[in-house]
Design brief:
The chain is an alpha+beta fold and 408 residues long. Helix content is 40%, strand content 17%. A hairpin with a 3-residue loop joins strand 8 and strand 9 (203-207). Helix 1 packs across helix 3. The longest helix has 35 residues, at 241-275.
């Protein structure tokens, strides 16, 4: 399977200028491609092909006075930007036809230099490499220092350079892992070991074995500092340098929270996958819950990201992963005798089964029922994980403010 490993970069001032130039040129080519397709759509003509766009927007544009500066960056960056525009339209049309899973994708929009995330991609034909000193050699940018937190398990096929809202630079490598090596990385657990995971807010997760994992509440803990930074930003004059500094301070506060949450998700998901042969979770309506008065706490927990990590790590290490339907009455059924006692308000954390008299902890009982439902699914031979898992965007590496953030 494909894996994405990201590491923090420390470019020099000159390299920052070169990276900004690459981001800008890629953005201009992307916007020109969208504008060309929109003009064709308005005129009722066929969309220009990728070859035509490459010839007119890159090759010929470099010879013009208005776009001669496109030659200052690697041609691979510009070609990849055209491919990104083509992929954006393919995803949009597939979403309209209903052929694309997930949330509906909107029409491609023009990129702005003020966007929070800027990115360029170098493929193998760009002749980038990692030299003997561990620096990343990029065409027309130079040797960039990388904060390596671990060795790459395989030779990467491409590298994507990104700049986030906090002004940090990252290099994201896409590699193809060896399934045999991945499965040999962890010792095989007991073949009968299975685990049900009930996600919540009072506790981030309650496991079917009775373990309760407290919710770190990273956003809540950093809220005082974040509010102070946001107030300082609101008092600055728009367009001033002090406002730009204050905006960067707010972005860094949010980035610190996101990095800590991601590290927690990685460590917990790796532990659960390493120690169990099968893991079952419940499908939660996160979007609906985020619109309630608990919305901030729901976003702070990051359930969707955690479940995604469980999914791709299970596929990588040969474990079984099951998602139970959200309408399964896991909180209403007695895990001891199986009787359904009906819905209960959220403030009821313990209840007694009227049939067998067993006293249940609400979350522990739900985790047991999730495990039982997951075992029932696997016994029926249903497909419990996807055949192909794409490289996750937020994979392990030196993401955090500290350079040593690690995960499996």
């Amino acid at each position: 399977m494909q894996l994405r490993c990201a590491f923090r970069l420390d470019p020099t001032p000159g390299q920052r200028i070169a990276l900004a130039r690459a981001f800008g040129c890629a953005r201009v080519v992307y916007n020109d491609a969208i504008a060309a397709r929109e003009r064709a759509r308005a005129a009722g003509e066929a969309f220009p092909t990728a070859a035509v766009l490459s010839k007119t927007l890159v090759t010929e544009a470099k010879r013009t006075r208005e776009r001669h500066w496109l030659g200052e960056v690697s041609a691979v960056v510009l070609q990849q930007s055209l491919r990104d525009a083509e992929s954006a339209y393919q995803n949009f049309f597939a979403s309209l036809r209903g052929a694309r899973k997930g949330a509906r994708v909107g029409a491609p929009r023009f990129k702005s230099r003020k966007d929070e995330r800027q990115a360029v991609r170098f493929t193998a034909n760009a002749r980038w490499k990692i030299n003997e000193t561990g620096r990343l050699l990029l065409p027309k940018i130079g040797e960039v220092k990388v904060r390596w937190s671990r060795m790459l398990p395989a030779t990467p096929s491409s590298v994507t350079l990104t700049k986030d809202a906090a002004g940090r630079f990252f290099a994201s490598f896409v590699i193809d892992t060896d399934p045999e090596q991945d499965r040999a990385r962890f010792s095989e657990p007991d073949p009968d070991s299975a685990l049900g995971v009930d996600l919540g807010l009072a506790h981030f997760a309650v496991l079917s074995d009775g373990t309760k994992i407290d919710s770190p509440r990273f956003l809540r803990r950093a809220e005082k500092k974040r509010k102070r930074a946001q107030r300082e930003l609101s008092r600055k004059q728009k367009g001033s340098k002090n406002r730009a500094k204050a905006r960067l301070k707010v972005a860094r506060a949010h980035a610190k929270v996101a990095d800590a949450r991601r590290e927690f998700h990685h460590q917990l998901s790796t532990t659960l996958i390493r120690e169990n042969q099968a893991v079952a979770v419940e499908d939660l309506a996160v979007k609906a819950l985020a619109r309630t008065r608990l919305g901030k706490s729901v976003h702070d927990a990051g359930w969707s990201t955690f479940v995604s990590m469980l999914e791709y790590k299970a596929a990588r290490y040969g474990r079984t992963f099951v998602v139970i339907g959200r309408f399964q009455p896991t909180s209403q059924v007695c895990s001891a005798c199986g009787i359904k006692d009906g819905p209960k308000p959220l403030h009821v954390r313990e209840w007694t089964c009227p049939a067998c008299g067993t006293v249940h902890d609400r979350d522990h009982n739900a985790a047991k029922n999730i495990k039982a439902a997951g075992l029932a699914v696997t016994a029926c031979g249903a497909r419990v994980r996807p055949e192909h898992v794409p490289a996750p965007r937020g994979e392990a590496g030196s993401h955090g403010i500290r350079s040593g953030a690690r995960a499996a």
